[in-house]
């Protein structure tokens, strides 16, 4: 790299220095120097001591930051006068703030350099109030972003936990109720079996009764669904049969037999097998067996539901999975909808328009789940508890497109250019931090080399995420 000086008059052509006094511009000219960097040169490297303040004179620079081990491009510019390097020189404890980004020369470039330590001393002497204000703004903004970011994550975790707890509670409560009822039915079966034994039923007859029981129990899982009117007619028919055969409290058995698909001809078969003497006890035993089978089916359904919910939670959190992998985007979308089902509520209809031919994409699945969470959460909030949430996937050229649509009030035109800015929110004070879409933008655009865009009008807002189908080179 080559070094040279710059005259005060030329310094005044840079917007940073145009308002300085003759004394100040003289100091800048005396202590600064011009350095040139060939194309491809590293100008400064992130994390190294911030020793110099750089002002671009010519050429094009590229600025990057390391994000979880990957270098992500933040900015590139050829505008004369843009600055980089020790941009936090005004801080009192400047040695605690190294270069915050790496800068590369995309073309042959020239920079005007100032020593950061000496510049900081002069700056505080020339502009003491501005120095204090800048330091306060920087530290306040940094602390606010840390606190609000942490709050955002805690709120998201709380909402997801509450939704998952709500979803788990229903099948868990159903399993508890069914288990309690099952205990009563098993006790009843033991009692009826004892009654049959006391009547000294023949072993061969008991075997036939067990065969009939097994045949009828197998029908429970495949019993046809009935309308309320059909079920009532079947119950009346079976009640009449039970009354005709002097079975006590037949009205109590009919509602057990009908859902299991038992007909009057089936009861005729039972009667023909055991005879009138054992009919009452045999039918009671059969009723308990059918109820037991039904209850075990309910327990199986409830525990299966719990297992699926836990699987969705595990998929959402990407537990035990590599951070970067080839993924099916539908898995993450489905698990996010499950995790947010409690917040989505009964008033919002969820429509899935999935193109199942969409190929897998290389991605950080856990981070994309955070994007889906932010977009779905915003969509639900925009609809205020009532509307249609549409989740659509498709292939668009060489990218996968994931679209989250809602029927809410829409994003006003004046806000569409600002919604991805950090801390910008249209929600009431205290309801939103303004970081959700900023985080989503950085995950999609910077982390995955994709695109995030919005189309909106009242009643039809669509956020579209586009992800490349192939591995992208590191920035």
What descriptors fit this protein?
5-stranded antiparallel sheet, 3 domains, single chain, rod-shaped, HATPase_C_sf, Heat Shock Protein 90, Jelly Rolls, alpha+beta, 475 residues, 5-stranded mixed sheet
Q: Topology, please?
A:
Blueprint: E1 3-4, H1 8-11, H2 22-31, E2 33-37, E3 42-44, E4 52-58, E5 61-67, E6 70-77, E7 83-85, E8 102-105, E9 109-115, H3 116-126, H4 128-198, H5 203-217, H6 228-244, H7 250-257, H8 264-317, E10 324-327, H9 329-339, H10 341-344, E11 348-353, E12 361-364, H11 365-383, E13 387-396, E14 399-406, H12 413-416, H13 436-447, E15 451-457, E16 460-468
Parallel strand pairs: 11-13
Antiparallel strand pairs: 1-2, 2-9, 3-8, 4-7, 4-9, 5-6, 5-8, 10-12, 13-14, 14-16, 15-16
Helix pairs in contact: 3-4, 4-8, 5-8, 6-7, 8-9, 9-11, 11-13
EC number: 2.7.13.3
Enzyme class: transferase
GO molecular function, one term: protein histidine kinase activity
């Amino acid at each position: 790299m080559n070094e040279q000086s710059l005259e005060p008059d030329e310094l005044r052509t840079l917007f940073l220095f145009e308002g300085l006094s003759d004394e100040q511009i003289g100091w800048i000219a005396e202590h600064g120097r011009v350095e040139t960097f060939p194309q491809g040169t590293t100008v400064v490297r992130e994390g190294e001591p911030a020793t110099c303040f750089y002002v671009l004179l010519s050429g094009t620079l590229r600025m990057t930051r390391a994000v979880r081990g990957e270098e992500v491009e933040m900015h590139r510019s050829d505008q004369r006068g843009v600055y980089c390097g020790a941009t936090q020189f005004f801080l009192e404890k400047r040695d605690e703030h190294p270069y915050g980004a790496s800068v590369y020369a995309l073309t042959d470039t020239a920079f005007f350099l100032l020593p950061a330590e000496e510049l900081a001393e002069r700056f505080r002497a020339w502009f003491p109030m501005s120095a204090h204000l800048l330091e306060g703004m920087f530290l306040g903004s940094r602390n606010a972003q840390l606190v609000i970011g942490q709050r955002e994550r805690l709120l998201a975790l709380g909402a997801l936990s509450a939704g998952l707890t709500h979803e788990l509670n229903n099948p868990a409560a159903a399993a508890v109720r069914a288990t309690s009822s099952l205990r009563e039915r098993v006790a009843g079966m033991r009692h009826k079996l004892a009654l049959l034994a006391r009547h000294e039923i023949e072993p061969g007859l008991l075997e036939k009764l067990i065969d009939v029981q097994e045949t009828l129990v197998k029908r429970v899982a495949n019993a046809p669904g009935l309308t309320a009117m059909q079920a009532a007619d079947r119950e009346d028919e079976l009640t009449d049969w039970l009354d005709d055969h002097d079975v006590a409290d037949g009205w109590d058995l009919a509602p057990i037999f009908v859902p299991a698909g038992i007909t009057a001809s089936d009861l005729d078969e039972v009667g023909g097998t055991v005879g009138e003497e054992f009919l009452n006890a045999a039918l009671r035993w059969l009723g308990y067996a059918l109820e037991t089978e039904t209850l075990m089916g309910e327990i199986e359904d409830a525990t299966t539901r719990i297992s699926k919910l836990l699987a969705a939670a595990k998929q959402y959190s990407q537990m035990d999975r590599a951070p970067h992998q080839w993924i099916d985007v539908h898995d993450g979308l489905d698990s996010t909808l499950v995790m947010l089902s409690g917040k989505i509520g009964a008033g919002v209809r969820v429509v899935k328009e999935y193109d199942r031919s969409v190929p897998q994409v290389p991605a950080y699945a856990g981070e994309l789940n955070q994007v889906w969470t932010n977009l779905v959460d915003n969509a639900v909030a925009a609809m205020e508890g009532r509307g249609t949430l549409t989740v659509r996937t498709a292939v668009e050229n060489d990218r996968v497109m994931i679209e989250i649509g809602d029927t809410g009030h829409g994003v006003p035109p004046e806000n569409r250019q600002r919604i991805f800015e950090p801390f910008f929110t249209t929600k009431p004070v205290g309801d939103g931090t303004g970081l959700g879409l900023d985080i989503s933008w950085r995950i999609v655009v910077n982390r995955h080399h994709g695109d995030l865009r919005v189309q909106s009008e009242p009643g039809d807002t669509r956020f579209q995420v586009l992800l490349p189908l192939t591995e992208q080179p590191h920035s």
